[in-house]
Specification:
The model has no long low-confidence stretch (mean pLDDT 92). By secondary structure, the protein is an alpha+beta fold. The radius of gyration is 23 Å and the shape is elongated. The strands form two sheets. Strands 3, 4, 5, 6, 7, 8, 9, 10, 11, 12 and 13 form an eleven-stranded mixed sheet that branches. The N and C termini lie far apart (62 Å). A hairpin with an 8-residue loop joins β8 and β9. The chain folds into two domains: 61 residues; 217 residues, 2-Layer Sandwich (Pseudouridine synthase), CATH 3.30.2350.10.
């Protein structure tokens, strides 16, 4: 059996800050050519004749040369290609602000509605792609992620040699994250409190939900101030499950204002209403720098609009 080896550098450049797709060929298989494998894997989605046309045009690349229609299959080999551009992405009309930058990291203040990294229909309109283009840092990578609808502080790694060190901060839960949220105020809800439960997010399902079992999600919820039936909350997640803070606030009977999923799934808007962002902000990020040992703290400059004017969020 062929032995797995690390992927070599991509022979294809980025396009608009987006990396090419990387495919590692299965170690076991009977395909006579690379093209036969690509046709089996992607042919249905690409459409009749499209894989053959891309092969003829040299749009698939191996580590050293384009993949030709007759290139023999090599178990464990590597192939790169660029996805075909789809419909133009709606431009999110808010900037990504840079809070800090040095030779190792970039700390950004992400706006609402902008995805952190390419995913699904969001590719060029993502914080990562924008920063790669605007800062001329093609090897920039995320140390962690924020939900697309959540704004605030995000850490990116500029030096690939340091990527594992900074990503490890989040994997080991050594980075301290604090969020702010605006939700209705209910004096009957005893705060501060810590919510612990088990959350599941199924592929293809928009909402996360609680199930019985060992807790895998933990959040501390504190009321900072309240007025006119609306509260401003500090949220301190100990874990990082998808939609964790949104689910935990909803479970307390305090759904975050502007949330299109909790407590009820709202009809998808096309285009999105940029006037009503989810009132959730990653306010601060603190950690001990894993490279130089220095204390790092970064604070978002953004404010949650519903605190000043809650009427437009249905408070």
């Amino acid at each position: 059996m062929a032995r797995r080896t690390p992927a070599p550098p991509s022979p294809l450049p980025q396009r608009d800050g987006i990396d090419p797709v990387h495919v590692r060929l299965p170690l076991e298989g009977t395909w006579p050519t690379v093209g036969a494998y690509l046709e089996e894997r992607y042919g249905t989605a690409a459409g009749p004749g499209r894989i053959a046309a891309m092969l003829a045009a040299g749009e698939f690349a191996g580590p050293d040369a384009p993949i030709a229609p007759d290139t023999p299959y090599r178990p464990g080999g590597h192939v790169w290609f660029h996805r075909e551009p789809g419909p133009p992405e709606p431009v999110v009309p808010f900037p990504v602000e840079v809070l800090y930058r040095d030779e190792r990291i970039v700390v950004a203040d992400k706006p609402h509605f902008l995805a952190t990294t390419p995913r699904g229909s969001h590719a060029t309109e993502t914080a990562l792609a924008r920063l790669r283009r605007d800062l001329d840092l093609p090897r920039l990578s995320p140390a962690h992620r924020l939900d697309r609808l959540t704004a605030g502080v995000v850490l990116f790694v500029a030096d690939p040699a340091c990527r594992g060190a900074y990503q490890g901060l989040f994997e080991r839960r050594e980075a301290v994250k604090r969020y702010e949220a605006i939700a209705r105020h209910d004096p009957a809800v005893a705060l501060p409190t810590t919510v612990r439960n088990r959350l599941v997010k199924d592929h293809g399902r928009l909402d996360a939900y609680q199930v019985p079992g060992e807790p895998n999600a933990e959040s501390r919820v504190e009321l900072l101030e309240a007025r006119d039936g609306v509260g401003r909350y500090r949220l301190a997640p100990r874990t990082g499950r998808t939609h964790q803070l949104r689910v935990h606030m909803n479970g307390l009977g305090l759904p975050i204002l502007g949330d299109p999923i909790y407590p009820a799934l709202l009809p998808e808007q096309d285009p999105e209403d940029y006037r009503r962002p989810l009132q959730l902000l990653a306010r601060s990020l603190e950690f001990t720098d894993p490279v130089d040992g220095g204390a790092r703290r970064f604070v978002s400059r953004r404010e949650l609009a519903a605190w000043a004017d809650p009427d437009g969020w249905g408070a």
